Amino acid sequence: MRILIVEDDPILLDGLTVGLKLAGFSPDAVSTCADADAALRASDYEAVVLDIMLPDGSGIDLLAQRRRERDTTPILLLTARDRVGERIAGLDAGADDYLGKPFDLDELAARLRAIQRRSSGRACATLSWQDVVLDPAMLSVTRDDKPVSLTRREFTILRLLLERPGAVIARTTLEETIYGWQEGVESNAVEVHIHNLRAKLGAGVIQTVRGIGYRVGAEQP
Amino acid sequence: MKSMRTRLLLILLLTTGAVWLSAAAWIYWSTQARVEQVLDARLREAARMVDSLITDHRIEIATAAGAIEGLEVETMTDEPYSHQLSCQIWSLAGTLVGRSEAAPRERLASNDDGFSQTTIKGETWRVYTVLNSDRGVQVMVGDNLQVRQSLVNDVMTGTLLPMTVVLPIAGLLTWLSVQRGMRPLDRMAGLLGQRHAADLRPVDLPDAPGELRPALDAINGLFGRVAGAREREKSFTAFAAHELKTPLAGLKTQAQIALASDDPEIRRHALEQIAGGVDRSSRLVRQLLDLAAVDANEERETISPADPGAIVRDSVQSVESLAARRGVTIDLEGAHARTVSCDRALATTALRNIVENAVLHSPAGGRVRIVIASSSQESRFEVIDAGPGMSDDDLAHARERFWRGASRDGVGSGLGLAIVDTIMRRVGGHLTLANEKRGGFRATLHFQKG
């Protein structure tokens, strides 16, 4: 799950990046409003973790600006200003959730999964197609109730494909999702991961749509 | 005297009373003088009349004194005092030739001619004597002073009685005026009395008299200052909480990573971050305490000559380990001024913050120079680093509490320069900040010469 973290404290930013990566997310990290704005315009994120007090402005202003521009990316405000009035102001400005500092990393991850779930119109915490079940919280995948061991990137690709079974996900989207900007992308990396996934899940789950990308299951009518 | 009302009332009553009394005394003395003048004129007239009667032989000497009894003396009142006039006629040989009925037998005057005063049997007489040498007699006409006094008293009673009756009314009117005059003050006291302790809005008294304006303005000014201080305190607390929560969140996140990860590399990295975070948080806490101490000791700083060498030594010592960790060297230049005028503890705190800033903003392996200089008016500590310096915007705001530049590098709390600035103003010196022309940054503490 590709997310953007906007936080100006270097230690916290580092902690969020490493911690959320461990929790199965693919985070990009920036520390100013300007960088965050540029990142949000350049790429699609499934969620944003946004600090309010930033060196070059207020996260609330950035949030309001994005909402005015019809950007519906789920945004979680993360801030030390967590009195009731401030939470209300943040949520009314268009935030999807609000978490006060200091917070629990696992709770932050759970809330991010929850707002992502809501934004994709799902109520169930797990993703499934036929007998393949993926649990984003446990980072676990089962096929026919038998656990399947996946690497973090294989897991991310499968999660993205299971999000909308039948829909074709472009190869570039998968690339962007599994690699933040900080990491280099090998040209055939996605093909390698798909190959490994097919080997672990068995054939018939992931299909290649030549020249475009991949999907789970048959083409939808 | 506690009550302004009582005081005002008393002053007004006392002055009114004093004016009243002096008016009464004036009337008394002038009445008495006037009565005396009139009655003396009558005495002389009566004496001359009797004298002329004798001279013209129109009447016997022996009976001449009786003529006085028919004489009507007009006085200021309706009472006829004429019958009180007494007349004696003495021969030059000293025998009483004749006297009026009211006159005593004793000689009324010892002198030959003119006015005199004699006491006979406890009664004082005012006498006018005329010497008639043709007939060899002296005519003496006198009246009893008691009579004169009662005349004066009558006049006084007539004048003073209405004045005395009016006095309580004047007192009542004075009291009512004072009450009315004090009403704006009562209203202000009422407004202030009703106020909630936390209500610091200005007192609104649109029709306040000019005399009350300065007091009202002073009170409103005070309210404004207290409200401002309270607002600053509130925002300070909010800022402090925010500034502490963020590093705490960082520490907690890194700790959770260290606990959750099996990868020794990730754990080591997280633990390093925790160590750095604790350093930063403790610096922040120390600065908050410094600031609280500077703010709390507003009136108690002890400015005295201090040894600049000791201040530099103490400041550098507390920054040495930080400098060593970052590979920054601290050089000392310049000759010591013998003393600087400051509070030694505060000056050490100020210099330490400046040196710490310089170390934190220096590139690794950089050099921080501390230059001690002095002129005839002041002693200076200059701290120069080879860091990136400050933008104009940052320079303008650098002394504000919790101000951190837009190019935030995460090393500062935004408190250091605020502390230094507060201290320098407290000890009567000042802080100047400037970018060096050839790169780097110079912060200077200016102290008055000790």
Brief write-up:
The complex is a heterodimer of chains A (221) and B (450). Chain A contains 8 helices and 14 strands. Chain A has 221 residues and is of the alpha/beta class.
Provide tags for this entry:
heterodimer; A: alpha/beta; Rossmann fold; 2 domains; 5-stranded parallel beta sheet; 4-stranded antiparallel beta sheet; elongated; B: alpha+beta; Heat Shock Protein 90; 5-stranded antiparallel beta sheet; 53% helix
Architecture overview:
The complex is a heterodimer of chains A (221) and B (450). Chain A has two domains: 118 residues, Rossmann fold; 90 residues, Winged helix-like DNA-binding domain superfamily/Winged helix DNA-binding domain (Arc Repressor Mutant, subunit A). In chain A, helix 6 crosses helix 8. Chain A contains eight helices and 14 strands. With 221 residues, chain A is α/β, with parallel strands linked by helices. Chain A has a five-stranded parallel β-sheet, sandwiched between helices. A four-stranded antiparallel β-sheet of chain A has the order 8-9-10-11, covered by helices on one side. Chain A has a three-stranded antiparallel β-sheet with strand order 12-14-13. The longest helix of chain A has 15 residues. In chain A, strand 8 and strand 9 form a beta hairpin. In chain A, 41% of the residues lie in helices and 24% in strands. Chain B is α+β, with helices and mostly antiparallel strands. Among the domains of chain B are: 166 residues, PAS domain (Beta-Lactamase), CATH 3.30.450; 148 residues, 2-Layer Sandwich (Heat Shock Protein 90). Helix content of chain B is 53%, strand content 17%. Chain B contains ten helices and twelve strands. Chain B has a five-stranded antiparallel β-sheet. Chain B has a five-stranded mixed β-sheet with strand order 7-9-10-12-11, covered by helices on one side. A two-stranded antiparallel ribbon of chain B has the order 6-8. In chain B, strand 9 and strand 10 form a beta hairpin. In chain B, helix 1 packs antiparallel against helix 3, helix 7 runs parallel beside helix 8 and helix 8 runs antiparallel to helix 10. Classes of the chains: A alpha/beta (221), B alpha+beta (450).
